[in-house]
Design brief:
Blueprint (H helix, E strand, L loop, with lengths): L2 H8 L8 H4 L7 E5 L4 H10 L6 E6 L2 H14 L5 E5 L5 H11 L3 E4 L6 H4 L3 H21 L4 E7 L8 H17 L5 E7 L1 E3 L5 H10 L4 E3 L4 E2 L1 E3 H14 L5 E4 L5 E2 H11 L10 E3 L19 E3 L5 E4 L6 H16 L3 H11 L7 H6 L2
Parallel strand pairs: 1-2, 1-4, 2-3, 4-5, 5-6, 6-11, 7-10, 8-13
Antiparallel strand pairs: 9-12, 11-15, 14-15
């Protein structure tokens, strides 16, 4: 699907920012992007490359995706010092060696499991990768004097209904807790679904349309959407604006009904919905909510100088108790004791409502 078609699906004008001034904090810095081969990570690398960093570190465990973004950055920016780094945020020793060798001044932390329905039955993977991996990255950034770290979060962290969302909420807690004592500026960026990204609804709908249908959609489910470039710009913008512990939220307009999205995609493919391609109702996937939210009820919100960006006041969580809970989660993940993990996630994130998978297991 072309960029123009994706913009049509957005239902609003794409948000543009002049990044030249705000991205000055990137110039002459060693910049580390975790998950650099992913949809958001690779777009961040493309945009960061324009601002003449001292060195751009592309960290990921998938060698093919890292090879591809490495080649692209080198071809488009031949004077840029690019270093592909194959590694896994779950490997604490490897991460420490990377920070010791490169000592990044700015870190963009995008690496995470994010396929909600795929990961829902395996909460141990959310623990080890998303929660413990984030703790490793953030604490190393603090230890090695990183100036700024921006972590990617999700609307699914708000009143989560899936283990992925609960894990991201705990990661938000970690960033806020560490920010209170660190000289590193830690900020979080929370946004909704990214059109065209891996694991998002658009590639799934495209595949169903390409196969001639039926296209399976929940008739009432809605989501907030943004484009990949919008997401990357928001992350870079937030890195410039952020004060310690803040959560940045993008005003993405009105949520879009997935049924309307699917209908428009069928028409963009030159087909007629309900005639050439059947639209078939389906229930929610495990861990999905009917409507996503960007703000928790306990969070206040204030505006910024940019009318489309808001700052949420994060919940205060004591770091010692949080670290103890993460240690317990890590031990449970090794067994794995999946039900105990879900129970502990709910204890740490009281607004988390486990999905049908875990409700049935508790009956």
């Amino acid at each position: 699907m072309t960029d123009l078609q994706l913009h049509k699906l957005l239902g609003r004008d794409e948000i543009e920012w002049d990044l030249e001034e705000i991205a000055a904090y990137l110039k002459d810095q060693v910049i580390l992007v975790t998950g650099a081969g992913g949809s958001i990570g690779s777009e961040l690398c493309r945009q960061i490359s324009r601002f003449v960093p001292k060195e751009l570190l592309l960290l990921g465990r998938g060698e093919q995706s890292i090879w591809e973004i490495d080649r692209e950055c080198r071809n488009r920016f031949p004077d840029l010092d690019v270093s592909p780094v194959i590694g896994d945020i779950r490997d604490k020793n490897r991460l420490r060696a990377i920070f010791e060798e490169y000592r990044p001044g700015v870190v963009f932390h995008t690496a995470a499991h994010k396929h909600v329905d795929l990961i829902e039955p395996y909460p141990e993977e959310v623990v080890v990768n998303n929660i413990v991996g984030t703790r490793t990255v953030t604490k190393l950034a603090d230890e090695f004097g990183t100036k700024r770290l921006v972590m990617i979060s999700t609307d699914k962290a708000v009143r989560p209904a899936c283990v992925y969302g609960a894990g991201k909420r705990i990661s938000e807690f970690q960033v806020e807790a560490l920010a209170r004592t660190s000289n590193t500026v830690f900020v979080t960026v929370r946004f909704g679904n990214v059109l065209g990204s891996r694991g998002s609804v658009v590639p799934s709908l495209q595949k169903q349309i390409g196969e001639g249908g039926p296209v399976l959609v929940h008739p009432e489910a809605t989501r907030y959407f943004m484009t990949i470039p919008e997401a990357a710009r928001l992350v870079i913008q937030s890195g410039a604006m952020g004060e310690n512990g803040e959560i940045f939220i993008l005003d993405m307009g009105e949520p879009v009904r997935i049924l309307d999205l699917a209908t428009e995609m069928i028409r963009l493919a030159g087909k007629e919905p309900g005639i050439d391609i059947e639209l078939k109702p389906m229930g929610l996937r495990p861990g999905d909510k009917l409507h996503e939210e960007l703000l928790a009820s306990s969070e206040g919100v204030r505006s910024t100088k940019h009318k489309k960006i808001f700052i949420a006041k994060p919940d205060r969580v004591e770091s010692e108790g949080l670290d103890d809970a993460i240690d317990r989660l890590e031990l449970l993940a090794r067994k794995p004791d999946r039900q105990a993990i879900v129970d502990l996630l709910q204890s740490v994130v009281p607004e988390y409502k486990p999905s049908e998978i875990w409700r049935k297991a508790n009956q």
